[in-house]
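Kindly go through the following sequence and its backbone structure tokens. Advise at your convenience whether the structure tokens fit the sequence:

___
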Amino acid sequence: MTSFLQPEHEELRAVVRDFAQKEIAPHASQWDRDHHFPVDVVHKMGELGLFGLTAPEAYGGGEGDLVALCVAIEELGRVDQSIGITLEAAVGLGINPILTYGIDEQKERWLPDLVAGKKLAGFGLTEPGAGSDAGATATKAVLDGEEWVVDGSKQFITNSGSSITSVVTVTARTGTRDNGKPEISTIMIPSGTPGFTAEKGYDKLGWHASDTHPLSFDGARVPADHLLGERGRGYAQFLATLDDGRVAIAALAVGCIQACLDMSLEYAGERQTFGGPIGRKQGVAFQIADLEVMLRASRLLTYEAASMKSGLDSGAVTMKEFKQAAAAAKLYATESAVTATRIATQVFGGYGFMEEYPVARFYRDAKILEIGEGTSEVQRMLIARGLGLPVE
């Protein structure tokens, strides 16, 4: 498919595609209508090894790379974007911070069940007054003896309030630096902690089968050893976490574009007007051709960025190069996905506006791709800065 994919990646693709067609596709529309988070399917994904694709064998993982995770997310997202984001957030925002910054005791406590898909973890960054401006974090954590006392709120947090959510890692102010700026750290707060509440799930435009909640903390106490990583390094940690996440979101967007192309091709060959299939009409055929171009370009950008992650350890790729590639992939693929759903809906005409056709669900699901894990505006800012422009 691309030069960045190895035979083992294509083997994984075939396995995940078969799983998605059998276990997800027949139910996706109903889950969407019911706003149902399918815990049983999450467990099956765990049994298939999807949550452990990039985790070490010591914790039950498959020791794969970011390319493998992107392949799995793309194939799930091709059928149901809600399930695709469940995997993306569970690994990129749930498992990876613990794996990257956790001490041995934290890894041994949390990772086995997370890697097995028995439990899920969330990452609480966004707040009512702190989204793209994460430095404006208002949630506070005060060290009281041997405990952190956390007060504040988070919003739009994925996998944070399901029946199998075990822990949420949150960013919080833990002090003030000498320059007057806030010291931000990350703290792990287990589900069920007194004072920690996952509020009622959102009534969202899309991603209806994904678990998303606002969170509140009112004197929530956790042991001091629940600090994740070095105190005061929470801001840097979340920035690094988001680099991988942007590539994974791009993969989810690729799955969306592929679905739009698949649906449009099938419908254009079946729908008859003026004595023939609408695919004979240039107005339709050219739009579908545009979908193919967007798909190829988005897929290449995404897997180039994913493969560059492996080059960081060897020194073949610099962090600056990876960040640029991740931002470019996220920006182009997600904006293309939104355009692709608009094109597919237009190909379907009036039927595209009806919820009985999956194209309507993909249309609703796509917009958030341009917002979550860094808006399109943030990606453009990062790319411009990487080019040496002093953009604010």
The chain has eleven helices and ten strands. The first strand starts at residue 120 and ends at 124. The mean pLDDT is 96. The first helix runs from residue 7 to 24.
